[in-house]
Amino acid sequence: MTHTESEIIVIGAGIVGLATARALQRQHPGAVVTVFDKETSVAAHQTGRNSGVIHSGLYYPPASQKAAMVKTGRELLFDFINEQEIPVDLCGKVVVATRPDEVTRLDGLKARGLEHGLAVRSISLGELRDREPFVQGLAALVVPEAGITDYVMICERLADSIVAAGGWLELGSQVTAINEEADHVSVVTASTGGRETTTRAKWLVNCSGLHSDRIAQLSGRQTEARIMPFRGEYYELTPQSRSLVKHLVYPVPDPRFPFLGVHFTRMINGEIHAGPNAVLALAREGYTWRQANRVDLLEMAKDPGSWKLFKKYWRTGMGEMHRSLSKAAFVTALQQLVPEVTATDLVKSGAGIRAQALRRDGSLVDDFEFVEGARSVHVVNAPSPAATASLAIGEAIATRLGKKF
């Protein structure tokens, strides 16, 4: 076992961890920052498997951290994208009501968007056809602030900037133990080759996404909320069928759930992805039904919040599972927005996992959530729109930690 020194340790090389490391370097020049991640590349999980959307902030309550951080984060993100010459397309999106009961909710979304200062507006069905000829609905909004980019490339550039500023990026290093003392933090990591290293630092930031609650517990912080992994599965339009959708097409979300429903997303490389559904994964990194983890399943089974959530939403859950196992059911859901799409237009694409925090009472944590220790800050809930808000989240964490210096 070897020993090293660092000023600040960040756990997690997804976009939130890398944005936080960069913010710490900028706010505290000269501080040595080390980023650990158990994977051998950056953005290996949530960040590298998301839709690539730059969110507008349309859906979030005005007083929420999500609303504030998305607004600030978008500005910081565009600055970084332009500085680094990263591909971006501010293509806008349409939100479409397909049922009478959704029209009223669509009006509510418009009011919220205007409250956020967005240039959201109602459009006629004729304008909807002009923008998206194959999309049908009863009413629609256009949100010009939405866009698409390449978050993996953003992470790679963030990593480069961290190293260039004197930081360290330790990939293939899994955190196995944390000892948080009054005047320092010791972190034990195991490399992919099995070599153990102890790194001593003054401060610790936990941005480990799917494992954030476990890392918090390793450091002695007991969090009420536990991570519940929801898998989002996607299809994509075949190259011959991509003309069915031009940009971003979303349904009116159900306010009872944190998920937006199946939608169509044009990726920065020109692909059109359709989805996702939201099924409970059988492992925190369970990207298919075949990937199950006994420890993760046992933990979920013992958590009273899991059973309360299932009791409340079992019908919805069964519907999501049916759509996961049946392509025909998935196609039917997509046809609510684009009636002409058929099974032959779709091929299976990748899946992502949403690290969604769940409380013991069965409620899903709706906003970003942080827990502090004497020498640590833990990001225990940062699902979508965390990628869009990442640079603002990083600045907020650096400011929190700065108050402890």
Structure characteristics:
22 strands; alpha/beta; 9-stranded mixed beta sheet; D-Amino Acid Oxidase, Chain A, domain 2; 405 residues; FAD/NAD(P)-binding domain; globular
What do you see in this structure?
- It is a single chain.
- By secondary structure, the chain is an alpha/beta fold.
- It folds into three domains: 2-48 and 152-225 and 366-402, FAD/NAD(P)-binding domain; 93-144, no CATH class; 226-364, D-Amino Acid Oxidase, Chain A, domain 2.
- The chain is built from ten helices and 22 strands.
- Strands 6, 7, 8, 15, 16, 17, 18, 19 and 20 form a nine-stranded mixed beta sheet that branches. A six-stranded mixed beta sheet has the order 10-3-2-14-22-21, sandwiched between helices. Strands 1-13-12-11 form a four-stranded mixed beta sheet, with no helix packed on it.
- Helix 1 packs parallel to helix 10, helix 2 (65-84) packs across helix 10 and helix 8 crosses helix 9 (327-334).
- The protein is globular.
